[in-house]
Amino acid sequence: MKTVTSTxxxxxxxxxxxxxxxxLDNGNLExxxxxxxxxxxxxxxxxxxxxxxxxxxxxxxxxxxxxxxxGPVTTIRETSDVHGGTYAAxxxxxxxxxxxxxxxVGTGDLDITEQTIHLGRQFNGRPEKFQxxxxxxxxxxxxxxxxxxxxxxxxxxxQSIKIGEGSQKIKSAVNTYSMFDVNINYSxxxxxxxxxxxxTGSAGYDLVNLLSSTGEPGSTLWADDLSFVYPAGINEDxxxxxxxxxxxxxxxxxxxxxxxxxxxxxxxxIYDMNGKVIISENMASSLHTVDVTALSAGSYIxxxxxxxxxxxxxxxxxx
Length: 319
Hints:
Blueprint: E1 5-8, E2 32-36, E3 41-45, E4 75-78, E5 88-92, E6 94-96, E7 99-101, E8 104-106, E9 108-111, E10 116-119, E11 121-122, E12 129-137, E13 144-154, E14 159-170, E15 174-183, E16 185-186, E17 194-200, E18 220-229, E19 244-247, E20 250-251, E21 254-259, E22 267-271, E23 277-282, E24 287-291, E25 298-305, E26 310-318
């Protein structure tokens, strides 16, 4: 089999502000599309028959190839064991001939013709955490990993440079859904233009030569409800959004959050002026009321976000 190498998909120098960052979807893994492979059909996270438009990808494309390149399905649309909603991703490590294939969901595009796996999706935010829910059944001491990193294109050097990253390895069995919580450490003040996400049931992957990856067939990782968490931004100006209204700005009991956007994945968080999360709630409807009666008098920040994007940020005063 030909060697598979790894390259970063450079998206160019992008000057968008935070409010204009591109939408990233399917963190809850509720959208899937079925494909017909050489020996079996399989599911890919995302909607549409053009897989290049899907934000999250797998190695299932190998199932399309003709013998002897026909690979096993390593990521399954889980329907019976989920954290939230209807579906989750079940990643089962396997082998193709003598080559090990890690179960994988992330921002990777397997390009067999060019012998390359491209990593990355366009992205312009600076989240502080990568979070989600998982279960894990390792084989023979294998370990899983959740990893994320951010890059930006440097026009002066004409290279993509890493400006932030974080990871968490899972080294033992976890039988019930538990949260992973990856802190993202930034080494550069610039705005990213690319994000790479790696969720895998076998952490011995090789990004330079995928077919040199190591691990144990059968190691199984379940993942669901992936999201980025943004800082409160208490030193920043308001981030207004015409599709989101927060009122009244001076409140004693009920703070209203009204949106014309799809609110099914929206979360509301209230921070004090020290950046501590005081209230965190899911949007129950297009008009959601947060009970702030118990808050002490003073100034607060409210942010509204979906799993990947900061949508709006406002200040309000509790009487």
